[in-house]
């Protein structure tokens, strides 16, 4: 038995089914394309956000590095000033006779051998 033939002038059910399938395929193709576009846009947005975060982190790291360098410069300048002051104080003590025997050699020799030269 074969399927009954549709009356003349009425649409063929096979054609209608094919049209519905084509419409459904088109609908799904549009959905897939939209999903791809949405995914690409989301990926681009995430890439830009990541770049912004990395840029901000680099700027913060640069600021922190500069702060650390400035603190190190300040500390080294204070240490250099302390060393300079210690050196000046030691030089002043040496000029006044100093504490070391080598600094007072002439004075000691004069005291020890002073009577022998007379």
Q: How would a textbook summarize the main sheet?
A: none
- Strand fraction: under 5%
Low-confidence spans: none
What sort of overall outline do the alpha carbons produce when their principal axes are compared?
Answer: rod-shaped
Mean pLDDT, to the nearest integer, reads: 83
Helix-residue proportion: over 70%
State the total count of DSSP E strands. Answer: 0
What oligomeric state do the depicted chains represent? single chain
Structural summary, described in words:
The protein is built from two helices and no strands. The chain has one domain (13-111). It is an all-alpha fold and 118 residues long. It is rod-shaped, with a radius of gyration of 48 Å.
Question: Which short descriptors sum up this protein?
Answer:
single chain, 118 residues, mainly alpha, 78% helix, 0% strand
């Amino acid at each position: 038995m074969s399927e009954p033939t549709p009356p003349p002038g009425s649409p063929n059910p096979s054609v209608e089914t094919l049209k519905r399938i084509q419409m459904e395929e088109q609908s799904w193709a549009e959905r897939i394309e939209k999903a791809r576009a949405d995914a690409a846009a989301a990926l681009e947005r995430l890439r830009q956000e990541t770049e912004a975060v990395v840029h901000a982190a680099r700027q913060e790291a640069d600021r922190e590095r500069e702060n650390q360098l400035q603190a190190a410069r300040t500390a080294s300048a204070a240490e250099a000033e302390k060393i300079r002051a210690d050196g000046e104080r030691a030089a002043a003590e040496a000029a006044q006779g100093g504490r070391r025997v080598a600094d007072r050699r002439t004075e000691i020799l004069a005291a020890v051998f002073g009577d022998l030269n007379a």
